[in-house]
Specification:
Elements lengths: L6 H8 L3 E3 L2 E3 L3 E7 L6 E7 L7 E5 L13 H26 E7 L4 E9 L6 E7 L5 E8 L6 H9 L6
Antiparallel strand pairs: 1-2, 2-3, 3-4, 4-5, 6-7, 7-8, 8-9
């Protein structure tokens, strides 16, 4: 028998840790309303738990007095969390796409997928050039410079040269 969660327990998990006019927080995110240094307005910064830099910063609405920011509330916090989460997800996808590329070219007997995976090491970045057959079996793998020019022509040339290190 699986344990069930009563409404009180569920409410505790969904309830933000902090609920202040300029600071809302849950287990994963913190929204903080800050003074916008560029003008007289306000901004909201979204921090992912454990990160020192905000994942997202955007404009925030002025209050009725046109001097102070509008206080944060539950619906605004939920919207900010969704927006920041989507922004982080898209950034991660973009980084993955930049670091991992592939093309499919003609091999001697079948199509070959050539992949380039860049390893962004701070001291000595490099890339791994690899090839797979149509079934996903590895045909070759070599370490190349991180700045290796990867395109359909260089991939085809590598396959045509029987995977000799470029």
């Amino acid at each position: 028998m699986t344990p069930t969660m009563n409404n009180d327990t569920q409410d505790m998990q969904d309830r933000p840790l902090a609920q202040e006019p300029r600071l809302w927080q849950n287990e994963q995110w913190t929204a903080q309303v800050i003074k916008n240094d560029d003008d007289d307005g306000w901004a909201v910064a979204m921090f992912k738990d454990g990160e020192s830099e905000p994942a997202l910063v955007g404009p925030w609405t002025m209050g009725r007095d046109k001097k102070n920011p509008k206080p944060l509330d539950g619906s605004a916090f939920i919207t900010l969390v969704k927006t920041a989460s989507e922004f982080v997800r898209r950034s991660e996808q973009q980084l993955h796409a930049q670091l991992n590329q592939s093309v499919t070219v003609n091999g001697k007997d079948s199509r070959v997928t050539v992949l380039l995976r860049i390893v962004p090491d701070e001291d000595s970045p490099y890339a791994v050039l690899s090839a797979q057959d149509e079934g996903g079996e590895s045909l070759a793998e070599v370490k190349v410079e991180a700045g290796f020019k990867f395109n359909r022509q260089t991939a085809q040339a590598w396959v045509d040269a029987d995977f000799v290190k470029p």
